[in-house]
Amino acid sequence: MVRSIEMGWFVLEKYYNMTDDVPVYAAAIILDPSRRGAYLKKNWPAEWYEPAVEAANTLWLEEFKDRLSPVGPTTPEPMPPPSKRRGAVLDHILQQMAVTAADTSSGDDLKAFAEGLVLQVDCSPLDWWCRLEQRQRYPQLSRMAISILSIPAESSEPERTFSGARRTCSWDRSRLTCINIEKIECIGSWLREGHIKPFHLNGMGLPMEPQLEDDTEEIDDDVADLLEWT
């Protein structure tokens, strides 16, 4: 039991330290209107605050601010509410870590937003940034916020994709090219999600599914690989 606990702390510390190398984590907290820089000042050691803000600001300057031209925002689509419930203990912890104030920040700039006072919102941070008024007020910063806050919190789906691709590329199918592997995985995802249906299920057919005609044409090796997968 002790060994298991020690390994758990080892893994937790390993991935926790990796957040220093990824400024997206700090940027996601800063871009949360109910957190901002006040959350970092309250819950992080003082020596962590400035490096985290500087790393997030560097990401903003290099990847978003100078590369995005301000354009008129479009009306965002409504997003469904979160489906997972939090436990009472987690709610208590989040309440203790919360910061409260009124929103007085201005300017389409990450540091100005981080130093601004927090705003308690009635929706998720991503929903807040997708609102038309925020996209008009922060035409460039809102793009960074939407891009970062849209990142999935877990990597299960990419891992499933890699596992599925490995099963597709079996030892007796080593001739498959990277392009065909990408097509197979994409079509497989569309099939699982119900976006496309084959002919025998009264669907429109697959991109590589041949029509049932009297005059059959010779099929090249790449198409044959795809047909073998179906």
General description of the model:
The protein has helices spanning 2-17, 23-30, 36-43, 46-65, 88-97, 110-115, 125-130, 132-137, 141-149, 156-168, 178-193, 221-229. It folds into two domains: 2-78 and 85-149, no CATH class; 156-229, no CATH class. Helix content is 55%, strand content 0%. The protein is built from twelve helices and no strands. The two termini are 47 Å apart. The chain is extended and about 60 Å long. Residues 70-76 and 99-105 have low confidence and may be disordered.
Topology:
Elements: H1 2-17, H2 23-30, H3 36-43, H4 46-65, H5 88-97, H6 110-115, H7 125-130, H8 132-137, H9 141-149, H10 156-168, H11 178-193, H12 221-229
Helix pairs in contact: 2-4
What's the short story on this structure?
With about 230 residues, the chain is mainly α.
Largest sheet: none
Counted up, domains total: 2
Total count of strands: 0
Helix count? 12
**Could you report the average pLDDT, rounded to the nearest whole number?**
75
**Range of strand content:** under 5%
Q: For the terminal residues, how far apart are their CA atoms?
A: 47 Å
Q: Structural class, please?
A: mainly alpha
Cα-atom Rg, whole angstroms?
24 Å
